[in-house]
Design a protein that fits this description.
single chain; alpha/beta; Rossmann fold; 7-stranded mixed beta sheet; two-stranded antiparallel sheet
Length: about 290
């Protein structure tokens, strides 16, 4: 954002309007703290942050957006070649930062967006002062004996095959798993239904491509290169990112802090938003180190 002076009037002109339209960027809040940029996970959109983001509007600028191919982004902007890896989604983040001239922002990323945030911070470190990584995983595949990601290759291949054969059936079966399995799902049926609907409202071809990118990426080598301090928020019982994943991240991310929520599922910002917001605010208040 830049200011143009015309006579006695100061007119603020927002840069990159095409990016803001493409990624359905929404800006709120007017606090003096650093901007908080919230990034959603696979199969979701910015609406998933509605229980957490508003609590920061009094003292921060809050920025929400949808990745191209998700939510209310411009479907015409989707390019399979650009989004065949996490680099394209990383560029979405950096494009939004450039459009709003964000520097020293706090990136809050859920699931695959956590690694997208790490990649973005490596590429343009001045854009980010801290990272908040919610249910992160640098690799969903197991790599014995050095790494337990939670899934065997056959498990993920079966998931993609089900998406190909019966997308709606996959959405119905996978949403409860993401929200915590039978126990976690029973405690948050509305969240399960909302996630299933979010899956179903996404173009199946686009969702399938994003799923493959999400579940088969390996960002372990990127972790030591991350220049920003980070908070790792992990649920105590997460079928997609077991406890060992959070501990691995804590060991390999410089200047990281690990906090474990007493919760099941992979989406604490939806099922446990009050505690999620509290831990984020505690980290920011403490200086994020």
């Amino acid at each position: 954002m830049r200011s143009d002076v015309s006579g006695d009037a100061e007119v603020f002109v927002t840069a990159g309007p095409e990016v803001q339209a493409r990624n359905n960027v929404r800006v709120s809040g007017n606090g003096g703290g650093p901007a908080l940029l919230f990034a959603h996970g696979f199969g979701c959109d910015q609406n998933m942050w509605r229980f957490v983001a508003p609590s920061f509007e009094d003292d921060h600028q809050v920025v929400l957006f949808d990745y191209v191919g998700c939510g209310r982004s411009d479907p015409r902007a989707y390019d399979p070649a650009r989004y065949d890896g996490l680099e394209g989604y990383t560029q979405d983040v950096l494009d939004v930062c450039a459009a709003l001239d964000l520097r020293g922002a706090v990136f809050v990323g859920h699931s695959v967006s956590a690694m997208i945030g790490v990649l973005a911070a490596i590429r343009e470190p001045d854009r980010f002062s801290r990272l908040i990584l919610v249910a992160p995983s640098p690799r969903f595949l197991n790599d014995p004996p050095v790494y337990e990601g939670g899934f065997e290759r056959a498990d993920l291949a079966g998931l993609l095959e089900m998406m190909d054969k019966n997308y709606l059936g996959w959405a119905s079966a996978f949403a409860p798993v993401v929200m915590g399995g039978p126990g976690g799902a029973a405690g948050a049926p509305e969240a399960v239904g909302e996630l299933e609907q979010s899956f179903c409202s996404t173009d199946p071809v686009t969702a399938r491509r994003f799923a493959e990118v999400t579940f088969f990426s390996d960002n372990r080598a990127d972790l030591p290169l991350c220049p920003a301090p980070s908070l790792i928020l992990q649920c105590s019982d997460d079928l997609l990112a077991p406890r060992s994943v959070g501990e691995y991240l804590h060991r390999h991310l410089p200047w990281s802090t690990l906090r474990v929520l007493d919760a099941s599922g992979h989406c604490p910002h939806m099922t446990h938003p009050t505690e999620t917001a509290r831990l984020i605010r505690e980290y920011l208040t403490a200086g994020g180190s």
